[in-house]
Amino acid sequence: MNMNSDNIVNNIENEVINKILVSLCSENTELYLVGGYIRDLILDRRGYDRDYAIKGESAAEFAKKAAEFFNGYYVLLDKDFDIARVIMPDKKNTLDFASCVKQDIYEDLARRDYTINAIAYRIDGEKSGLIDPHNGANDINNKIIRAISEQNLIDDPLRLLRAFRFAAQLNFNIEDKTLNYIKTHKSLINRVSVERINVELVKLFESNHTAVNLDLMKNIEFLDEILPEISIQRKIPPNLHHHLGLLDHSIETVKQLEINVQDMPEWVKERLNQEPAANIKLVSLLKIAGLLHDIGKPSTWQIDELGRHRFIKHEEIGAEQAVDILKRLRFSKNSIKYMTKIIKYHLYPSQLLKSDEEVTEKAILRMFRKIGEETPEILLIAMADRLSARGPEITENIVNNNIKGLYWLLEKYKESLEKEEALPKLLSGHEVMEILDLPRGTEVGRVLKALKEAQISGDVNTKEEAINFAKGYEYKKKETE
Q1: pLDDT at residue 392 is higher than 60
Q2: Is the terminal CB of the chain with fewer CB neighbours within 10 Å at N or C?
Q3: Are residues 326 and 356 in the same domain?
């Protein structure tokens, strides 16, 4: 539900941060709240990042005053353009200050990316009402992403990608003329630093409307500019197992992830909302892995004598190829390790369920041991992969049985976590070191982990059994490999 203009004005004027900033203004200062924060107020969404345009004094110097008052962190973003940031003590809220372009708020708004971000309100003294020369509020109400001008996109090509990020976050539509601008100038994205692209990609993949925008990016070949490695996927056609070509299947997998995440139990949702790195949620990394999960298929593609398509070990080769892609996109080592693990093991759960023999407790625990705490994500991507592949040989019964089995494995994993929490600690790390004459290190952790799994399965229940298990660990390890 959108706020009306009176409520927006009241919200802005009554906000404590704005009142304090006004008190810091010099006599001739004009201070405007601009951009996304006002957009989010109109949408009745909570925003944490505030942008201010300032006229009459240096934005950087004003930011220093604000940082000192709030006991925040001052960051000079651009000395030449007089742009600075204040990170508030909670490290969640940020205040960005920039000098008005040509010391004119209308000129400033005319240089912005999209109409929805080109709205201002003067918060010091003089009551201006909302300043909206480009009808941004109207576009917000109609859910439209519209460029202010073609030149503004050329001036900062990151704005080409930001259109899809905003569309995904807000569930808006990019209007045709703007989409045509992006298509015309798509190659300019290669001039932008990879670090800036990374930030936008993470935000795009975190939203609930990623897939539809990836599809749009694919249609105008903008996705190929950002991820040239996926262009070759366009050449892999549908087959007996897949009703879609490979690139469409990869995007459909992201779509199915978005749908399935909404239906997951709360404990899974809470895990996916974790931030292993600043401002990067696991759900975003999971969906990026979803887009890349079959990246190894083009290099492993074979058609056998019966005309069947084969992609032998594509999951392992794809995980290796993804490392280079994700390094190029400047993801951290831990994020790359997380995503490539999901890619490497995305077939494992369904392969376990398809085995001719009955799925034993030991086989399940062996899988949990191998894929570890990423088990929920790997089960999720296995579900999405199954739901995205419905070729002529894949019956509804096959799909339903596979999904049912994957949900069963998720329940088994949750049970194993609960059992693990309730288990008594039979041996300490020091005791394992003494029993096996091991130095402190990762091998001790492996023994303790294997011991815990043996407790979960019921094979070990007492201290004596734990000691015997530890003594026989080397043999047991070889047996299970």
Answers
A1: yes
A2: N
A3: yes
